[in-house]
Amino acid sequence: MTGQPIRLGIAGLGRAFTLMLPTFAADPRMTLAAATDLRPEARKRFEADYSAPTYDTVEALCDDPSIDAVYVATPHQMHAAHVIAAAARGKHVLVEKPIAIRIEECDAMIDAVRRAGVQLVIGHSHSFNAPVLHARRLIDSGAYGAVRMIHALNYTDYMVRPRRPEEMDTTQGGGVIFSQGAHQIDIVRLLGGGLVRSVRAQTGNWEQSRPTEGAYSALLTFEDGVFASCTYSGYAHFDSDEFMGFIGEMGLPKDPARYGTMRRALQAAGNADEEAALKAARNYGGSAYAPPSATPANRRHQHFGSIIVSCERGDLRPMPDGVMIYDDEAVRLDPVPVPAIPRAEVIDEFYAAVANDKPPLHDGEWSRATLEVCLAILESSQARSEITLRHQVGLRGAVR
């Protein structure tokens, strides 16, 4: 189908779709062709916006013969069943991170797409970001020697944003390990070469009203001796975007004077149902939903906090404008052009896989390995011991 747009069915019109919509709507390689969601208001809006059908179930969506691929953006614990349903009907699949919440689910998904002969790409994770990919290319150039150490740190307000009840239940994929660790660990694995040998970690759960992990700190050791420290807090106190010149995760400037805004908004919800309604209202089709506007002229690259890669002859730091290089001679920015369409890197990889049969970087095996690290963070904290991994895979082929 080289040269033809991918006709995409959307499984889940919630927050993930809301964030990906500017990409899907603006990229000529994608056509929004059908959708399903539990919320009637979201389905009604999709039908009006795209003159496309909607369905009551994911299975009915996947039965639509007019679609080429399915974007699975349902809750984490449903990913496996929905990917398997799509693959069984011959659809390629783009599934939101994390790939799943159990290794056995990953195995079943990988087997399903292999049997069907379709492509599986897991994204968006921030390891798709162009500055991260450029840092990997700089490493591959050999100009700075081998990677020796990686630092990753991000402090956000994740835990005080409106949530559905299952998002506060670790057994259903709730908490920061699955939703946020999937970003950070994916970046660190990509920059470190992929092959994590062991994990030693602690997690934090410090707010009784949010009964799941809201923070973690982990030491990852790679097979070649590279080590990485990964720290995340979602408790909305320090904001590590300060280290990024107050450019937010989505690549837009943020006002430091708005500190605490999300926590104050959450306090307006009197119970779990009201909180879930607050979240639904912000999503596609909700009463507070704001359609994506024209791309701001001041948009920069998206990011996931502070990342520093220490090589033998220099440090590399992905930034909203490119990669900062600190070598033996000087400090300089290696600029990376901002794509005209946000998150276009995801479509680059997915389209190349579907249209040109190019093996994707973020495939099932790669993302299973990222999930394995996330699960090891939980296990290590509970057992107070180092966890050895066995599902890791290295980078395959050149990073785009």
Mind sketching the topology for me?
Layout: E1 6-11, H1 15-26, E2 30-36, H2 40-50, E3 54-55, H3 58-62, E4 69-72, H4 79-88, E5 92-95, H5 103-116, E6 120-122, H6 130-141, E7 147-155, H7 176-179, H8 181-192, E8 196-204, E9 215-222, E10 227-233, H9 261-266, H10 272-282, E11 306-311, E12 314-319, E13 322-327, E14 331-335, H11 344-356, H12 364-383, E15 387-388
Parallel strand pairs: 1-2, 1-4, 2-3, 4-5, 5-6, 7-10
Antiparallel strand pairs: 7-11, 8-9, 8-15, 9-10, 11-12, 12-13, 13-14
Helix pairs in contact: 4-5, 5-12, 8-12
Characterization of the model:
- This protein is an alpha/beta fold and about 400 residues long.
- It has two domains: about 5-125 and about 340-365, NAD(P)-binding Rossmann-like Domain (Rossmann fold, 3-Layer(aba) Sandwich); about 130-295 and about 295-340 and about 375-390, Dihydrodipicolinate Reductase, domain 2.
- The chain has helices at about 15-25, 40-50, 60, 80-90, 105-115, 130-140, 175-180, 180-190, 260-265, 270-280, 345-355, 365-385, and strands at about 5-10, 30-35, 55, 70, 90-95, 120, 145-155, 195-205, 215-220, 225-235, 305-310, 315-320, 320-325, 330-335, 385-390.
- A hairpin with a 3-residue loop joins strand 13 and strand 14.
